[in-house]
User: What shape does this take?
Amino acid sequence: KNQVEQSPQSLIILEGKNCTLQCNYTVSPFSNLRWYKQDTGRGPVSLTIMTFSENTKSNGRYTATLDADTKQSSLHITASQLSDSASYICVVFDRGSTLGRLYFGRGTQLTVWP
Amino acid sequence: DVKVTQSSRYLVKRTGEKVFLECVQDMDHENMFWYRQDPGLGLRLIYFSYDVKMKEKGDIPEGYSVSREKKERFSLILESASTNQTSMYLCASSLITGLTGNTIYFGEGSWLTVV
Assistant: This one.
C-alpha cells in the first residue's frame, strides 16, 4: 500500500534554532518527492521537488534530502524564524499509472517561539 | 506568478443545499484537482481533471461531482450538502504532473461549514 508517513506530528522550537522534519514513504514506483509549506488558513506552497537521482536540494534556509534506497526524505530548516511556523507536507508522486498520482503525508506542524 | 483562485473563502450552507465551489487558474494548466483537508487526515483527493470535459474520481468522490467546461475553470459540486462535508476544500492545478519540474499550485482554500 502506498503511504507517506511524516514525523514528528508536531514540533516546537525557539527562534534561531535549527530543526529537521522526516518523511518516510512506501510509494512505488517512485517519481519525485515534494515538500510544501502551508500557513494556517492558506493553501500549500511548494518548497522543493526532488527526483530519484537528487540527494539534496536547497531553497534558502530550507534544505531537503532524499535517500531513494531507504525511501526517506528530510527537510532541514536553518536559523528558524517566526514566519516558519506552519504545517510542512511531504508529497510523493507515483508514476505507476498513466497519469500518475500524488500521495500526501499528514504534515508536521511546526511552531517557532520567540 | 501562477494563480489559482477559489471564488469563495468562507461559506455556510444548510444541509441538503446544492453547493458550488469554483476554481480558476490562469496558467493554461492541463490538470486540475479538488482536495479536501481535515485535521489529522491530510489532503484527500476528491476528483481531478486532465483536460476539458474529462474527469477522474479520486479517493473520496462520494457525494461530489465536478465540471470542467473550460480549461481554466474546475467546479466542485455538492449535490446535497451534509454535515460530514464540513471541511476545507483546496483546488490545485499543474502541467503534466509526471514531469519533474511541474509544480502543483494550490488555491487559498474554501472553508465550508454545513449546518
